[in-house]
Write a structure and sequence with these properties.
Elements: E1 2-5, E2 15-21, E3 26-37, E4 40-48, E5 61-68, E6 74-79, H1 106-109, E7 117-120, H2 132-145, E8 155-161, E9 166-168, E10 174-177, H3 180-194, E11 202-208, H4 225-236, H5 244-250, E12 253-256, E13 260-261, E14 283-286, E15 290-291, H6 302-314, E16 319-321, E17 331-332, H7 336-340, E18 345-350, E19 352-353, E20 361-364, H8 365-379
Parallel strand pairs: 2-11, 2-12, 12-18, 13-19, 14-16
Antiparallel strand pairs: 1-11, 3-4, 3-8, 4-7, 5-6, 5-8, 9-10, 10-20, 14-18, 15-17
Helix pairs in contact: 3-8
The protein binds manganese (II) ion (MN) (2 copies).
Length: 380
């Protein structure tokens, strides 16, 4: 989704853009997901984004998404979130029998093809026919959603943790919740945009998809759809002309609103203390991203960082300029480079997170509020 509040100033002078992503690491259902084995019914899954697979066993899971029938009718699925809903789970091996399993490397502990979701165990009408447990599930799905097995072929069903987002700590200082990468920045930026009135420059909010798998496709940030959106705005303002969009981008500024790794004392070895971010110290700014020698990263120029420092200091917003962990341990990227390639001045800034990409992520309420304030003053 792209949103804009048209500014008072000539749009040729550029936009103020804040962009986040709304997809999070998860398990997707395969196109042919349903099978029966040993009197259990299961869904086959294919993981989406960077996960530690072993973290997804033995936790409550919910199913969200859509099933689109051939006639175009769309069925929305949301099950596992209400207290009265059933949940689902992926089983793990009991420790009593796990001697061999525990000797494996963590990346092989649970294999991709073992992430099978347990969804049922009762045979249809208690009849002794083949695959009667699967048949019973199909019967339930048909009654509940009006679908047949083939309809999974045109579905997008996502398995996510069924944990509620909760206040965390005796001091109520933190938030634990799934998918805070990057919904914590999507939420704060969207909330800030809703409070923007008569901005000087046109305020643009991007909520992009597919960031966790490389921003590809027509809902990912790599798509030309964003250019079309801006071009349509230029049309509606009756100012469009050849190359104007390039000039608009060249004069635009952007905050790439994405989370950063917060310092975790339990894993202190992964961080370099002078250039790491700590929870509770405000919004986190990454001048650059990337892996190894900053490869694949987006690097904000010093002039733009100076502007952002000035803006945050003048508005008493706490921030820290940091890196994502130690050099050569790994790294990552965001959608920043895509807008930077169009000529936009972009810097990454967002909320520091503990346990990023795990089923339950931790943030500080102070940082969430600081991010909201930063996004609000940037647009104002
Ligand atoms: Mn992210
Ligand atoms: Mn991520």
């Amino acid at each position: 989704m792209y949103l804009a509040v048209i500014g008072k100033e000539d749009i040729k002078n550029g936009l103020n853009i804040i962009g986040s992503h709304v997809d999070s690491p998860r398990l997707d259902l395969k196109p042919n997901p349903l099978y029966e084995e040993a009197d259990f019914a299961y869904f086959k899954t294919h993981y989406y984004g960077g996960i530690k697979k072993y973290q997804w066993t033995a936790i409550p899971l919910a199913i969200h998404g859509v099933i689109v029938k051939k006639n175009g009718k769309k069925v929305t699925v949301r099950i596992g979130e209400e207290n009265s809903d059933p949940i689902f789970t992926i089983t793990d091996l009991l420790p009593h029998l796990a001697t061999k399993q525990m000797e494996k490397k963590a990346k092989d502990l649970v294999e991709g093809e073992s992430l099978n979701l347990l969804i049922g165990s009762i045979p249809y009408n208690n009849k002794e026919i083949s695959e009667s447990v699967k048949l019973n599930i199909l019967n339930i799905l048909n009654q509940k959603y009006g679908i047949t097995e083939e309809d999974f072929l045109s579905s997008e069903l996502e398995i996510v943790p069924a944990f509620k987002a909760k206040t965390m700590g005796f001091d109520w200082s933190m938030v634990a919740g799934y998918g805070q990468d990057d919904k914590v920045c999507a939420y704060t930026s969207l909330t800030a945009l809703m409070n923007v009135q008569n901005p000087k420059k046109t305020a643009v909010c991007i909520l992009s998809d597919k960031e966790e798998i490389g921003s590809m496709g027509n809902t990912g940030m790599e798509t030309q759809m964003f250019d079309l959106f801006i071009s349509k705005i230029l049309d509606k303002l009756n100012v469009n002309k050849p190359n104007l969009i390039n000039e608009v981008f060249a004069n635009s500024k952007m905050l790439s609103a994405d989370v950063n790794a917060g310092f975790d004392p339990n894993y202190a070895d992964a961080f370099e203390r002078n250039n790491t971010d700590y929870l509770g110290r405000g919004i986190s700014i990454n001048k650059y991203t990337g892996t190894r020698g900053k490869s694949g990263g987006s690097d904000a120029n010093a002039e733009y960082i100076a502007e952002i420092r000035k803006l945050l200091d003048e508005n008493d917003i706490s921030y820290k300029i940091a890196e994502l962990g130690k050099v050569d341990l790994g790294g990552g990227g965001t959608i920043a480079y895509i807008l930077a390639n169009k000529g936009v001045d972009v810097v990454d800034c967002g909320v520091p997170v503990l346990s990023m990409h795990a089923p339950y992520e931790v943030t500080s309420k102070y940082d969430v509020y600081s991010a909201y304030k930063a996004y609000e003053v940037f647009w104002r």
